[in-house]
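Exercise 4. Each item below gives a protein and its sequence. For each, produce the structure-token representation.

Item: ABC transporter ATP-binding protein (Rubrivivax albus).
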Amino acid sequence: MSDVLTLSGVHTHIGAYHILHGVDLVVPEGKVTMLLGRNGAGKTTTLRTIMGLYRAGPGEIRFRGEPIHALATPDIAQRGIAYVPESMGIFSDLTVQENMVLAARGAAHAGALDTARLDWIFGLFPALKKFWLYPAGKLSGGQKQMLSVARAIVEPRALILIDEPSKGLAPSIVQNLIGAFRELKAQQTTILLVEQNFQMARALGDTVAVMDDGRVVHHGAMAELAEDQTLQQRLLGLSLGAHA
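Answer:
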């Protein structure tokens, strides 16, 4: 099994604040890697640093063996990396359709979208088909989250970075997301997923990295962490079993 993404000794400063303190992280290709940790541990900063929204320094980030830490965000995206931020990152004044077209690098207009893939997305998130021509800003919070995820998967990606996708979603939609991510994994899409929904973490995760105070303090198999309540309590201050 090869590693699609590696972080080696990555530090990130935001203004006067030193957020990441030498992060080492390995993301195996074709797997779902969970990035867990208490609030403020540095999980979101790690995703934003991978995408070039924050500059790593010092440290090295490699995607398929090539360094990307000095690249601009659009150049990182061009390599097949998508990012679903916690803030969702949709364009509220544009329609659902227009949001999807903007996310599709190979489509200059709606008619150029991959119809088979679009039908698959509509199967996962029927509300997007229903509100296809509505301004995205008029969607509910859960529907906006669906659109954010749909934008990331409108075309095949090699790696998707996702920050708490289940936040604010009804349990039935969370199950749809789990199904969608499993299908993506079956298509050899690699996913790095920050998530506070431990049911989703346990259902999806192949490997896990746990962060604390800007560092990765544990990595291993998600199944092993899910079964070890003592380790959960030590690393996360809670039990996954209590959140099943």
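Check: The longest helix spans residues 171-186.
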